[in-house]
Write a structure and sequence with these properties.
It contains 5 helices and 5 strands, in the order E-H-E-H-E-H-E-H-E-H. It has one domain (about 1-120): Response regulator (Rossmann fold). It is globular and about 30 Å long. A 5-stranded parallel sheet has the order 2-1-3-4-5, with helices on both faces. The longest helix is centred in the first third of the chain and has 15 residues, at about 5-20. By secondary structure, the protein is α/β, with parallel strands linked by helices. Helix 1 packs across helix 5 (about 110-120) and helix 2 (about 35-40) packs parallel to helix 3 (about 60-70).
Length: about 130
């Protein structure tokens, strides 16, 4: 699941992952806000949630807290992608339960490698 309020960034992430992994091997779901993501999570399971921090209504950090408290989604990998790239922001996101943090602008190769690393050896989510 890609959670990002910018349609162009959601499209960029989708394109980057499809070009490195093949469109047929991925099932990417997009949410335009943290609130949309919360509405969509019950439809999961999801292997990975890629989320921005700064979004209207529910921000990415609040979304991460929800995911980590959820019995169903607690083991879901979470990657933050954000323009907030200070060490303080990175540490806060990781402390709240994100598995990794990439600063925008995103490098497609770095994104693909990070996604591969986060998904490697992770258990398949149960329905």
């Amino acid at each position: 699941m890609v959670v990002e309020d910018s349609a162009s960034t959601r499209s960029f992430i989708r394109s980057a992952l499809e070009s490195t992994h093949g469109a047929d091997s991925l099932d990417i779901v997009e949410a335009a806000s943290g609130f949309d993501a919360l509405r969509m999570l019950p439809r999961g399971p999801y292997d990975l949630v890629i989320t921005d921090i700064n979004m209207p209504d529910i921000n990415g950090l609040e979304l991460i807290q929800f995911i980590r408290k959820s019995d169903r989604h607690r083991s879901t990998a979470v990657l933050i992608v954000s323009t907030q790239s200070s060490e303080k922001d990175r540490v806060r996101g990781l402390q709240l339960g994100a598995d990794d943090y990439l600063a925008k602008p995103l490098d497609p190769e770095a994104l693909a490698k990070t996604v591969d690393r986060l998904l490697a050896g992770r258990p398949t989510p149960s329905t």
